[in-house]
Structures are given as structure tokens and as C-alpha cells.
Design brief:
Helices cover 37% and strands 18% of the residues. It has 487 residues and is α+β, with helices and mostly antiparallel strands. It has one domain. The chain is globular, with a radius of gyration of 23 Å.
Length: 487
């Protein structure tokens, strides 16, 4: 079933887009990517592609198991009629709608999702760390290992499509070192809090011992390394699609509920991704690591060894060095320990707690809130019920704004703060740039208005179901590489 559902990834992602005709540049130079509708238009010319899709929709219950009969009929009409322009403008989901899709995806995976307002069990550090033993080992860096192949993270999908990431050639020789450093930092983060008694995992560097992530990096700085931490924002790449060697534009558009002045449309923005990036250079190693909470249910440090597609852009909101960089690492370690405790105490949380414990942004919003006194990230989704304690992370989690609740309101400061360009004039998605400029002007003039929530009618169920399928496929992709059988 996984393989069959994965076959529909490219097709179903079409209906999760909104305003993809916004792709373009301010001049006549074509962008270095293709719109998904362009890909689907080209693929639909191949009778084998159309026949394979229709066969799985019409005859294979596994392929359409998450779609109702009306949605299957509508999808067949769109495929046969090649109405790609119509689906290019398919409305985005609200944050609340995304939450409903996550719950539907969880049900599809067989999770038992508790009712809203349930009282989660308290967590303890012993649950997060398990029965630990006292271990002290050398850092073992530099560490040699095989270089990553250029296609190490790419999987063929058939019909000229690939899914995954290209390897960054500049990082291939550093992969083993960066992976070892990330693993050690994550393991150190799971130690009991410094005020608690041992046992602990410890690392030795030049005869000195580190028992926390910040202590290890402080020892590396003492040994001649330089550490810089960057608070980076991007557009989230939910598709990771490549067609005939060219990047495919696959954002997931969110309905902010804010009216675009002079229109009857809500402001739609691509969902953002944020991460704190550690840039470490020195005699033992040069490494780049990221820190965020992933759909794998883990808040952790991860090696940066892939190339982003051009359309995700990128902006650094804050740069930390010296003691501030070590403070960011310290708090990231506390977050890792807290999230591991919640995950151990609630093993039935769908997708390891993704969405209910936040999306990628929430843990980075905690760091920004601690370091800057506010957060400028959107969306934020964590359920504060899972953070009832008096720890630093619990208190930060409860201070975060939460999007998608009945009592939440669109926050333009955070919406604009998550756009991954310093200047809107540099945004290459023309129609998105135009809408943002209109909204920003209205914001400065104090005349921003919210939409009366759009009534999507018969498309709502299709949108929710298709988003659900996307979430399931994305989660599965992280656990088992999707391969699309040829027709």
C-alpha cells in the first residue's frame, strides 16, 4: 500500500497548492524551477502515466483508500480534462485545517488520537533518559568515513521524477565528522539536568570532560574552533520533487485569514521552515549542523549536507557568537531532553508528537523568545497541555502564541518574520510578493482586515483528505524510501 500511495505523491500535491502561477521573476529571466502544474501538464501527455493513475484510482482500493467517491470522481475529471490551471489556484489550508489533516492522517496510520482537552500524564527526566550508565569516551574527532554519493538522498519515482535532496558537494568529505558531532551533542543533551545526580554520558577532549552540549562546544572553542549560530528561515519544501533534473515548486500554502486589500481573497503564504544552524570551524573539523523538531518526532541536531532547492530561498534573522552561541546550544539541549521525556511518556502521540508538540518552528521560537524577548515565527502549533511543569522549557512553551485555535488571531509580525527574504522586492514569486506588499502597506496604515472565514463548500473535504495523504506520504518517506512502480 505504501508503494501504491507513493505513486500518487506528485499528482496529489497538485491539489495542495494555491496560487502556484505566482512563480516567476521580476524580469524576463525564467526561474530555475518548474511549477508543479507544468510538470503534471507534461506528464499527462504520456498515456502510460494517465493510465497508471486512473487504474490505481478506479480499480485499486489501496491507492484511493483515503479518498471518498466524490473526491475520486472529481480527481478523475481533473486528470482527464487536464484542468491544471484550475488546480493551480486550489485554496490553501488554515492552520486549524492543517491540524485536522494531521488528526485524519493519524487515524489513517492507526493511531488513537485523544480528545481535545485531554490531560496528558506528567513526564520525568528518568523517562526521557531511561536506565543510563556512567560512560566516558573520547570525542573521536576527526572521524573518517565514506563520502556521500551525489544521489544518496534521491529516490526514483518513475516518469522522470525523483524525490529527495541533492547532496552538497562541499559537505561530502565532512559528513562522517558532522554526523558524529550531532550524535554526541544529542546524546549529551539526554543527560539528567545539571542539578541532578549522575549517571551521565561524558566526552573527553584533550584530557577535559564535557557532560553537556554547551560544555563540549566550549572545549572545542578552547581548542581553537570558532562557533557561530544562525537563526535561519526558509520556505518549507514538502514535495522535494525533481523532474528531468529540474527543481519543482512544491510549497504548502497556508490561509492566514487576512484579507488582501482590494480583493476578496485571503492572504496565502507558503508554510515556513526554521532552524538554528551551528557553524563550527577549526583544527579538528569544519561542520554545519541544524536544530529543529522534525516530522520524525525528534527535536535534535542534524548534519547539514544537502542543497536546498532555489525556491525555498533563505534568510538569517539572528546571528549569535561567543557566550550567546553557547547559550543557544544550552537551551537546545534542554529542549531535546524535554521533548524526549514527552515522547517517552506519550508513545502513542501521532508522528512522534509532530503538530501537537509543534512543527519545526516551535522549538526555534522558544530559543528566539529566550534570546530576543519575542518570537517572529509562523505557524506555531504546540499544545501547552504537554508542558505543564516548571522547567525552563515548559515555561517558554506556555508563553508561545499558538496559531489555529478559535481564540487566536493572525499575527502579521510573525507572518512577515517567517518570509525568507530581507526585502520583499527580492521575493521571486510575483503574485505572492504583490499580495504581501498590499497587506504590508495596509498594515502600516492601520487598515488590515480579516476575512470572514471562507466557506470552501465541496472542496473542503477534498482539500483535507489530500493534505492528509500528503502528510502520510511525507512521514512514510522519512521511514521507507518511496519508489513508484512504472506503468
Amino acid at each position: 500500500m505504501i508503494r501504491r500511495l507513493a505513486f500518487l505523491t506528485a499528482l496529489l500535491l497538485v491539489l495542495a497548492q494555491a496560487a502556484l502561477s505566482a512563480a516567476g521573476t521580476t524580469d524576463r529571466t525564467p526561474p530555475p524551477w518548474m511549477r508543479l502544474s507544468e510538470v503534471m501538464t507534461e506528464l499527462s501527455v504520456d498515456p502510460a502515466f494517465v493510465a497508471a493513475v486512473l487504474q490505481r484510482l478506479g480499480r485499486d482500493p489501496d491507492a484511493g483508500g483515503l479518498l471518498g467517491p466524490d473526491q475520486i470522481r472529481r480527481l478523475r475529471i481533473l486528470i482527464l480534462g487536464e484542468h491544471w490551471e484550475a488546480v493551480d489556484h486550489f485554496p490553501g489550508l488554515t492552520v486549524a485545517g492543517l491540524g485536522r489533516s494531521v488528526r485524519l492522517a493519524a487515524l489513517a496510520r492507526g493511531y488513537l488520537v485523544g480528545a481535545e482537552g485531554e490531560e496528558p500524564a506528567p513526564t520525568t527526566e528518568s523517562e526521557a533518559t531511561g536506565q543510563m550508565k556512567e560512560v566516558t569516551e573520547p570525542l573521536a574527532l576527526p572521524q573518517d568515513g565514506p563520502a556521500l554519493a551525489p544521489d544518496a538522498y534521491l529516490r526514483p519515482m518513475g516518469f522522470g521524477l525523483q524525490i529527495g535532496d541533492r547532496v552538497d558537494p562541499s559537505s561530502t568529505g565532512q559528513h562522517a565528522k558532522a554526523l558524529r558531532l550531532a550524535q554526541v551533542l544529542n546524546r549529551l543533551a539526554l543527560n539528567p539536568a545539571p542539578a541532578r545526580a549522575p549517571p551521565r554520558y561524558q566526552v573527553e577532549v584533550d584530557g577535559e570532560i564535557a557532560a553537556t552540549p554547551q560544555d563540549l562546544l566550549a572545549l572545542l572553542i578552547k581548542a581553537g574552533h570558532r562557533l557561530e549560530v544562525r537563526d535561519a528561515r526558509y520556505f518549507a519544501n514538502f514535495g522535494d520533487l525533481i523532474y528531468q533534473g529540474q527543481d519543482v515548486l512544491t510549497p504548502f500554502w497556508l490561509d492566514t485569514g487576512i484579507a488582501v486589500p482590494g480583493t476578496d481573497r485571503p492572504l496565502l503564504v507558503p508554510a515556513g521552515h526554521s532552524q538554528h544552524e551551528l557553524h563550527l570551524t577549526g583544527p579538528l573539523l569544519d561542520a554545519r549542523l541544524s536544530f529543529y523538531f522534525g516530522i520524525d518526532g525528534r527535536a535534535e541536531f542534524r548534519p547539514i549536507d544537502t542543497l536546498d532547492q532555489a525556491w525555498v530561498l533563505g534568510r538569517v534573522a539572528h546571528v549569535y557568537g561567543g557566550d550567546d552561541a553557547l547559550e543557544v546550544v544550552r537551551l537546545a539541549g534542554a529542549i531535546i531532553r524535554t521533548y524526549a521525556g514527552i515522547r517517552d511518556a506519550h508513545p502513542d502521540l501521532p508522528f512522534g508528537g509532530y503538530y501537537r508538540l509543534g512543527v519545526c518552528n516551535d522549538v526555534n521560537a522558544m530559543i528566539e523568545l529566550h534570546m530576543q524577548g519575542r518570537t517572529t515565527l509562523f505557524p506555531l502549533t504546540l499544545d501547552s497541555q504537554f508542558f505543564p511543569g516548571d522547567s525552563e522549557v515548559d515555561r517558554l512553551a506556555r508563553r508561545l502564541p499558538v496559531d489555529g485555535r478559535a481564540d487566536s488571531h493572525p499575527d502579521l509580525q510573525r507572518i512577515f518574520g517567517s518570509i525568507p527574504v530581507d526585502d520583499l522586492a527580492a521575493l521571486p514569486l510575483r503574485e505572492l510578493r504583490h499580495d504581501l506588499e498590499l497587506v504590508k502597506l495596509a498594515w502600516l496604515q492601520g487598515r488590515v482586515s480579516s476575512m470572514n472565514w471562507w466557506d470552501p463548500g465541496p472542496w473542503a473535504a477534498a482539500g483535507g483528505v489530500l493534505a492528509t495523504i500528503w502528510l502520510v506520504l511525507w512521514w512514510w518517506r522519512g521511514r521507507r524510501p518511496p519508489v513508484i512502480p512504472s506503468a
